[in-house]
Design a protein that fits this description.
Protein name: Gliding motility-associated lipoprotein GldH
Number of helices: 1
Distance between the termini: 43 Å
Number of strands: 11
CATH topology: Jelly Rolls
Strand content: over 45%
Keywords: Lipoprotein, Signal
Organism: Taibaiella chishuiensis
Strand order of the largest sheet: 1-11-4-8-7
Largest sheet: 5 strands, antiparallel
Helix content: 10-25%
């Protein structure tokens, strides 16, 4: 009986772990005083060794209940290996609430987390190996943007 229970437990654990996908890269940066100034552009450094695999990019944001908008406009600025300057990517609108004002992310205790997929045109292309620097710029009219606690990136290798 104990052997069956142990075997069943191991099988369930193995099945559950197959569904867990760990990101290739994930990092978040805190926003000073929960007021995101346009001049504050969190920078993330990603070491890319595999330039063949496709990647999926996600923007991460955490805000509180007092965030005054249903969306957030951002732009990624990217500097690739060997580049001396950042280049501007397309801007993207990040939807945070539906038409009725209900937050779309996961909430707990008045804090809301969103993981939003970026369109392929918005995501940088990793054409050569090395360290890529990505800055996230908020391009909203309101500056500073209140009630934003953290922003970040999640990058996952996609199955081909």
């Amino acid at each position: 009986m104990k052997l069956r229970t142990l075997t069943l437990f191991c099988l369930l654990l193995a099945a559950a772990s197959c569904g867990i996908k760990s990101p290739y890269y994930q990092k978040q940066e805190g926003i000073p005083k929960a007021a995101w100034k346009s001049s504050f552009q969190p920078e993330f450094s990603i070491n890319i060794t595999d330039t063949v695999s496709p990647y999926a990019f996600y923007f991460l944001v955490r805000h509180d209940e007092a965030y005054p908008n249903a969306n957030l406009w951002i732009r990624l600025n990217v500097k690739g290996p060997g580049d001396s300057t950042f280049r501007h990517m397309s801007r993207a609108e990040i939807g945070l609430a539906d038409a009725e004002g209900k937050w779309l992310g996961r909430g707990m205790g008045g804090i809301w987390e969103h993981k939003v997929a970026l369109a392929p045109a918005m995501a940088p292309q990793f054409k050569k190996p090395g360290v890529y620097h990505i800055r996230i710029e908020q391009i909203m009219r309101e500056d500073p943007l209140p009630s934003v606690l953290n922003v970040g990136l999640n990058i996952e290798r996609r199955a081909e």
